[in-house]
Specification:
The protein is built from six helices and 20 strands. The protein is an alpha+beta fold and 297 residues long.
């Protein structure tokens, strides 16, 4: 990441990212390898970093139409100023390029996206036949493991950690996927990064993407003793999207919420054993292809 003098620069989630010229501390390393070529229409957001000796254990988070003050795990603060289009991370540890692109960038993109009129959801996403499916689930639902499994069979991963939708198109995230130790060891992949944020991470680089793609629908993860793939009714669709809103604050309902909740949404309940994941995913993908074909009729 840099401050380009010409050209579109680099970014992710529909934001063009710039190093703040007056930052208290420099970013350690370059994030460009994980960032997309920014579209000229993407708004520029400055990223600043402050090194602090202590965090804010008792920080009270704030959010309104102009400013957000949020906890940056495990013990720091993220301040977003809408008018200045600036995000300032205050951490007790150096801010590395690896840490910026994941996990810290997602929070900036979630709130900036909300202010820009975009819809933002906690989750990941993948592309199938030229359209994108959002992947939703609880914190321990296995989103990153599922995305890694999809990547391993050649299905493009569009984003990990955040789904940003604008005009029914999904804006791509950083080109990396972070795994826990057990998942990295199971697949035999991942570069160890040590502890960033709340946990240790093993990183897998992803191929670059070609432009935003239209959203097809949603997949909601759940655990079950038996494989079950079924479409959710209206109440289930609304509940899944409401639970996974990235900005959970009064008056912060994502734009186009009802429209996005009207898209096909499948519950993907599967056993926790990784040995059955590939066959379960193949059945899921077959079902998604069928739904997409019917939707085009």
């Amino acid at each position: 990441m840099s401050r380009p003098t010409e050209g579109p620069g680099r970014g992710a989630y529909g934001l063009r990212l710039l190093d703040a010229a007056d930052a208290d501390q420099p970013l350690v390393g370059s994030a460009d390898r994980w960032l997309l070529e920014a579209d000229p229409s993407w708004p520029a957001w400055e990223i600043a970093y402050e090194r602090v000796g202590e965090g804010w254990a008792d920080l009270v988070e704030e959010f309104d139409a102009d400013r957000a003050v949020l906890r940056a795990q495990p013990d720091g603060r993220l301040t977003l100023v809408r008018a200045a289009q600036r995000a300032t991370l205050a951490l007790a540890e150096p801010l590395t390029a690896e840490g910026l692109v994941h996990p810290y960038l997602a929070t900036t993109a979630a709130f900036a996206g909300h202010w820009l009129g975009r819809s933002t959801f906690h989750g990941g996403s993948f592309a199938l036949e030229g359209r994108v499916w959002g992947l939703l689930g609880d914190q321990e639902a296995g989103k990153s493991t599922t995305l890694m499994a999809l990547h391993s069979i050649g299905v493009p991963v569009v984003s990990d950690d955040l789904v940003v939708v604008e005009d029914r198109r999904v804006l791509g995230g950083p080109r990396c996927l972070d795994l826990r130790r057990s998942t990295a060891e199971w697949f035999g992949v991942g570069r160890p990064l040590g502890r960033i944020g709340r946990r240790e991470r093993w990183r897998v680089d992803l191929p670059m993407l070609e432009g935003p793609l239209p959203i097809a629908g949603w997949v909601v993860l759940a655990w079950s003793e038996e494989l079950a793939i079924r479409q959710l009714d209206a109440a289930g669709r609304l509940g899944a999207l409401a639970t996974n809103r990235a900005v959970q604050a009064p008056g912060a309902t994502p734009p186009q919420f009802l429209e996005l909740a009207g898209l096909p949404t499948l519950l993907f309940a599967r056993p926790s054993e990784r040995s059955v994941l590939k066959s379960a995913l193949e059945q899921l993908l077959d079902r998604l292809v069928e739904i997409a074909a019917l939707d085009r009729v």
